[in-house]
Amino acid sequence: MEDMRKRLAMLMDSRQWRERYFKMVKAALQDPDVQTFLKQHEADLADDAIDRGTAKIYEFVSERNKIARGELPLAPGYQPTLVVANGLIDVAYEPTDAKLAADEEAKQASLVTSVNMPKDIHDASLTNYDPTDERVDALLAANRFVLAVVADPKTFHQGLYLSGPFGVGKTYLLGAIANDLASKGGIATTLIHVPTFVVEMKSAIGSNTVLKKIDSVKRAQVLMLDDIGAESISPWVRDDVLGIILQYRMQEKMPTLFSSNKSMADLTESLAGTDRGNSEMLKAQRIMERIRFLAKEVTVGGENRRNSLAN
């Protein structure tokens, strides 16, 4: 007797579920979007397309309504749409505008590789760079560089050597150039903080990864070396690290930019080791010859903006 009651209860539940399902399917068939689709594709659909496509129609309406209510849909980031496939009704999922925007933003972000660079350069933009009298020449040069590279990325374009005191916006300007290259031309950039990179290269000696790191840097589509000359550079770093990177980029004519607190003339003295009592001017001049080929010096001046948003 107990088993019979259970079977009867299960049967009633099954009937109630089917009734609810048929009501939902009927409502889905009467949905305005569904009706519009059926009318537009009446000539394309098989005679039994509606009978065979009720589950697809219900899926479309159900998932569309979930999105409208802010609930988690079957395919987050995608919206359902009814399509005709071989005379039958099917559901296709297309990315939403929000997902397309997020994907594009992620794609652009992936084009800019920052190595030990400050976080504020991630949102740096040339349009937000304050064009004061002391910085307008650098801003104009940056815009010309971006426009030239985007218009003809396969041709060599001489980069910029941004020189000036601390906090005037040299690093921010490099970040802004990198972001504009990514957004306007899909061009990849690698930004490197040179003093930190030098420390990492010395540590790489023990793990025998020096050449691998050098190879990765020298082949960057656009390379930016930030704060070069901020600290004393050893002869090994000068000749066997920077020398190799810059020689390769000069030979291959690859866009390269720099920022420094030193002018090119002062950087020459530093690379020669005169501040350490050495005199290797010839080797320093060889490095500077490559830098001058790759970039032209532009002075950035003004007040110290180290703590501002567009520093």
Automatic annotation (TrEMBL):
What Gene3D superfamilies does the database record attribute to this sequence? Answer: P-loop containing nucleotide triphosphate hydrolases (3.40.50.300)
Residues annotated as domain Primosomal DnaI N-terminal: 1-93
Residue ranges annotated for the IstB-like ATP-binding domain, each copy included: 157-306
This chain's protein is named: Primosomal protein DnaI
Q: What is the species listed in this Swiss-Prot or TrEMBL entry?
A: Lacticaseibacillus zeae subsp. silagei
Taxonomy, top ranks, is:
Bacteria, Bacillati, Bacillota, Bacilli, Lactobacillales
